[in-house]
């Protein structure tokens, strides 16, 4: 966990100070390659884990419920903040 | 991009499921190293994005409350699932803190909590993106314009931005980008924190 956050911080600091466009492109490529490599490795991990395949229906249902409920939570809290503090939507309506 | 992402994952699944490649004993270490490279590049991208911070100052720092509200709502409600399933509170918090950023969150979670929870995190956060893209017109109609931004989470700044802009206006589209960027910064920290807890 420490090493992961350290790499993130290091990237942020270097990204803030280094302005070279060329370097930015290289880093951008690095991002795509590493994401694809990681998902490939993740796939290998899943393929080795037979437990996932025997529970695929349950996993799908659980994931869908988590997606729906987290969306609901986010909408409710943003509405609450807008109604009480920000008033972005009401300001538009009265115009 | 999504085609390549799902494609490389399916390729990995097939290759190992049918034992075409042998069990890799150092899989976790390899993942850890590539994960660090990926987070370095994510940080680099975020750190160089100075325009966002200048725009944010102009528009008022209060806008930060929107991504904060999105995160709190997502986390509190995700915990509810732990009462109805075998998932622990920390697992639901880790999955819920992905907020649509499925590639990064599922990788960090797999690394810390294993492939089962990682697979759930991947699907959950991909569903979140897909649901947002499909149901934005309905959300805007029923719950107002900001609900599309809230539903999107991190993808509100890229993959879901097109549909959000189409069904709201330029001001909301701007807020959508701001909110997505702030969440993208926040998510690696939250996911790492919660997935390290169990």
Descriptive labels:
heterodimer, A: 95 residues, mainly alpha, 2 domains, 5 helices, flat, B: 198 residues, 10 helices, 79% helix, globular
What does this structure look like?
The complex is a heterodimer of chains A (95) and B (198). Chain A is mainly alpha-helical. Chain A folds into 2 domains: 36 residues; 41 residues. In chain A, 92% of the residues lie in helices and 0% in strands. Chain B is mainly alpha-helical and 198 residues long. Chain B has one domain. Chain B is 79% helix and 0% strand. In chain B, helix 4 crosses helix 10 and helix 6 packs antiparallel against helix 7. At the A-B interface, helix 1, helix 2, helix 3, helix 4 and helix 5 of A face helix 1, helix 2, helix 4, helix 5 and helix 6 of B.
Class from secondary-structure proportions of chain A: mainly alpha
Stretches of chain A where pLDDT falls below 50 for ≥5 residues? Answer: none
How much strand content do the residues of chain A show? under 5%
Overall average residue pLDDT of chain B: 91
N- and C-termini, Cα separation of chain B:
32 Å
SSE string of chain A, helices as H and strands as E: HHHHH
Largest sheet of chain A: none
Shape summary of chain A: flat
- Count of alpha and pi helical runs of chain A: 5
Multimer state: heterodimer
